[in-house]
Request: fold
Amino acid sequence: MSTTKSGSKTWIAGLLTATVASLCCITPVLALFSGATGIASTFSWLEPYRPYLIGLTAAVLAFAWYQKLKPKKADIDCACEEDKPSFWQTKTFLGIVTVLALLLMAFPKYSHIFYPESEKKEIVIINKINIQQVKLNIKGMTCEACSETINLALSKVPGVLEYKTEFKNGSSTVKFDNSKTAEQAIINAVNETGYKVTDTKPVQ
Reply:
C-alpha cells in the first residue's frame, strides 16, 4: 500500500514540476482570459530555470513509469489475492498525467491559438509626414505568448498602424500616426501588460 501511495505522489510531483516549468508562458494566456493583463509577466523570472524543471519532470515521470512497469516479486508467504488498485494507481492514470505534463511543457509552441486574430484596421493616412516608426526594447518576454500579449495591447491603441513583436529579440517595432497617438501612449500600453519598455529608438 505504501508503494502505491508513494507512486501517486511521484505522479503528482511530475505534473506539478511540468506546471511550474510552463507558468511563465501560461500566465499571459490566463491574464488574457481574466482580463487582468497586468499580471502577464508575473512568472517570467522562471524562464532561466525552465530547462532544469523540464529535466526534473522527465526524471520524475520516468521513475514513476519504472515503478509501474517493473516486474513484481511473487510473495510466497501470502496466498491471498492482491487488491485491485484504484484508478489513481493505474497505468491509465499515469498515462493521462504524462500526456498532461507533455502538453504543459510544449505550451509555448501552441500558445498563439488562444489569442484572437488582430482586427484589421482601416488605415486612413491624411499626411505621410505624421507617420513614425519606433523600436521598443522590452524586458520580461520569454515566449510567443508574451509577444501575442503585447501585440494585443498595441492593436488597441488608436493611431497604431503596424507592429511586430519578437520575444527572442526582446523588442517590438511599431508604426504609428503621431497626429492620433504619441510614443508615450504606446509605451504605456506595453507597460500595462506587466512587461517593461526599457528604451526606445526611432526607425527610419
Remarks:
- The first strand starts at residue 131 and ends at 139.
